[in-house]
């Protein structure tokens, strides 16, 4: 087979760069569109650096030392789906954070009422022993 470099991202995506033995072509492939970006960007950066230094800056006016082409049409639909999915995840995360903030505030209010009601500094201190089961930091307050 052809020389290849494969990566597996932390999220589980696989990406591969295949190098042709004879034609000097590279093929980048992935099981998801998002996995193509890092390898494509790095390969282009390195090819531009290599051919830019080898051609003395490449200002000769002739054909460029290399060209980038795509075999198929760009999968813009998949690209926009990935953006929409990311945006939906951010909205859900914000909603969950808001709900958590409201619940935490409610919890603090209830905890404060319990402390005031049961007179934490007085003789009813034993009544608050179970509060540490609800909130592990309540033991520090008692």
Description:
The chain is mainly alpha-helical and 142 residues long. Helix content is 49%, strand content 11%. The chain is built from four helices and three strands. The chain has helices at 36-54, 76-117, 131-134, 138-141, and strands at residues 4-8, 14-19, 26-30. Strands 1-2-3 form a three-stranded antiparallel sheet, with helices on one face. Strand 1 (4-8) and strand 2 form a beta hairpin. The longest helix is centred in the last third of the chain and has 42 residues, at 76-117. The protein is elongated and about 85 Å long. It starts with a strand and ends with a helix. The model has no long low-confidence stretch (mean pLDDT 79).
User: What do the pLDDT scores average to?
Assistant: 79
- Distance N to C terminus: 70 Å
- Count of alpha/pi helices: 4
Biggest sheet record: 3 strands, antiparallel
User: Percent of residues in beta strands?
Assistant: 5-15%
Question: pLDDT under 50 segments (min length 5)?
Answer: none
Strand order of the largest sheet: 1-2-3
Q: What class, by secondary structure content? A: mainly alpha
The string of secondary-structure elements, in order, is EEEHHHH
Radius of gyration: 30 Å
Based on Cα principal axes, name the global outline: elongated
Helix content: 40-55%
Strand elements, count: 3
Write the layout of secondary structure elements.
Elements: E1 4-8, E2 14-19, E3 26-30, H1 36-54, H2 76-117, H3 131-134, H4 138-141
Antiparallel strand pairs: 1-2, 2-3
């Amino acid at each position: 087979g052809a020389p290849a470099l494969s990566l597996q991202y932390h999220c589980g995506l696989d990406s591969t760069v295949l190098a042709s033995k004879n034609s000097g072509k590279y093929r980048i492939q992935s099981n998801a569109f998002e996995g193509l970006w890092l390898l494509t960007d790095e390969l282009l950066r390195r090819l531009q650096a290599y051919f830019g230094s080898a051609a003395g800056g490449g200002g000769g006016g002739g054909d460029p030392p290399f060209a980038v082409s795509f075999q198929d049409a760009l999968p813009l639909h998949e690209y926009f789906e990935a953006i929409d999915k990311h945006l939906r995840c951010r909205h859900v995360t914000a909603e969950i954070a808001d709900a958590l903030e409201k619940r935490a505030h409610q919890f603090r209010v209830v905890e404060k009422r319990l402390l005031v009601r049961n007179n934490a500094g007085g003789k009813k201190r034993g009544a608050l022993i179970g509060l540490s089961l609800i909130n592990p930091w309540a033991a520090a307050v008692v």
